[in-house]
Write a structure and sequence with these properties.
The complex is a heterodimer of chains A (115) and B (264). Chain A has 115 residues and is mainly α. Chain A is 68% helix and 0% strand. Chain A has helices at 8-26, 39-45, 48-62, 76-91, 94-114. Helices cover 73% and strands 0% of the residues of chain B. The chains are: A mainly alpha (115), B mainly alpha (264).
Chain lengths: 115, 264
């Protein structure tokens, strides 16, 4: 197929992923105006973004190889994450947080690789 | 506090991302195009974080055993960064496709909050617009657009602002995936440069403004601990467990504080 080598199972996978993702993002709009969330659910939903993002951040920083826990200061991911937290807390600027922590991460990684 | 209010406050606290767009006394509504470009411009900081993320996604696809078409198809039709990465990891470990689809559902459940928040802003839009904007409701575009919608400055046609943010994210994401797919072949070691740190860096930048209340701290700390403790669970179920534990901790903590206030 055009030399892009899609297998049938991959087509199912991409189609399935696209369907569930769009479904989640769209489902509330057709019925909008006719429904109201219960109060407790609305409150709970407010904690979803930080909780989900933290659940993605922490393992990717502390278990960088996906297998072993690495809480040492020679873990460049941990150094970079600490830098991101400090920069973010002080300057409250998203772009600065990303750029500064990326630079510190890359320097730490390079330094540790050099030995 | 309504969820949109929380989000608006948080993003307003981010400050400098939205410079100079307060127009309380304007009498000429900005044109569609200027709103479109304003949305694209305000999305720029998040694009910076998404660039290495997208390139790495493309570069890792081959190693994970995905074809060019599958990787590109994901960026074109799914358009969900973290879910695509999780799918990549699952595909690499030989997970069957129905399990990958279920995991995508779990990882993207948070977008239900985003659409819930957008319901009042999209209420009067034509159906095609609702579908289009829903498709592009990523973490980044949601964060930028919800702030603009929440600004009571009398500007109409903010859908074009939302569209500008979405189109910019979409083009960038697909271009970066393409670069990663082609450069990954030329420089196979690109995936070992550690550019994957861009994702936690961006997400940390998004989470920090949330940490202004004790229940939020409880939610984040709980989610972090559980995510490590439950890391060995199959099919990324640990992510969902950690998220649910965090949300529960936040709600319990909030109720405890409310109770205490009532007692006093």
């Amino acid at each position: 197929m055009f030399g892009i080598g899609l297998q049938l199972s991959e087509i199912y996978m991409v189609a399935g992923m696209a369907a569930v993702t769009f479904g989640i993002r769209y489902i509330l709009f057709p019925v909008s105006g006719r429904m109201q969330f219960p109060k407790w659910l609305e409150k709970g939903l407010g904690y979803v973004p930080p909780a989900v993002l933290t659940a993605i951040i922490v393992p990717s920083v502390l278990i960088p190889d996906g297998k072993t826990l690495d809480i040492n200061l020679d873990n460049p991911y941990l150094i970079g994450a600490i830098a991101a937290c400090i920069t973010g807390a002080i300057f409250k600027n998203l772009l600065l947080t990303i750029v500064v922590s990326m630079v510190i991460f890359l320097v730490a990684q390079w330094a540790f690789a050099m030995g | 506090m309504p969820t949109w209010c929380v989000c608006t406050r948080l993003w307003a606290a981010g400050g400098s991302i939205w410079p100079g767009d307060a127009r309380p006394f304007n009498n000429t509504n900005p044109s569609r195009w200027s709103l479109f470009f304003e949305g694209a411009k305000d999305t720029f900081p998040l694009i910076v974080g998404a660039v290495p993320f997208g390139i790495i996604f493309g570069a890792l696809a081959d190693t994970a055993g995905l074809s060019f078409g599958a990787a590109m198809g994901m960026s074109l039709f799914v358009f969900a960064g973290s879910a695509q990465f999780v799918a990549l990891g699952l595909a690499a470990s030989g997970t069957p496709w129905p399990m990958i689809v279920v995991t995508t559902f779990v990882v993207n459940l948070r977008h239900l909050l985003y659409s819930a928040t957008m319901v009042p802003f999209y209420k009067n839009l034509p159906h095609a617009w609702k579908m289009l904007l829903a498709f592009g409701l990523t973490d980044e575009t949601f964060a930028v657009a919800v702030t603009r919608y929440g600004k009571h400055d009398g500007v109409t046609g903010k859908r074009y602002y939302n569209l500008g943010s979405m189109v910019f994210m979409y083009l960038n994401w697909n271009l970066c995936t393409l670069i990663g797919l082609t450069a990954g072949k030329t420089f196979p070691e690109i995936s070992r440069w550690g550019l994957d740190f861009a994702m936690p860096a961006t997400f940390i930048g998004i989470v920090i403004p949330y940490l202004v209340t004790r229940p939020m701290w409880a939610a984040v700390i709980t989610a972090g601990i559980v995510s490590i403790a439950a890391h060995d669970l199959p099919h990324k179920l640990g992510l969902m467990l950690a998220a649910l534990a965090g949300v529960t901790a936040g709600m319990v903590c909030e109720n405890l504080f409310c109770e205490r206030k009532k007692e006093k």
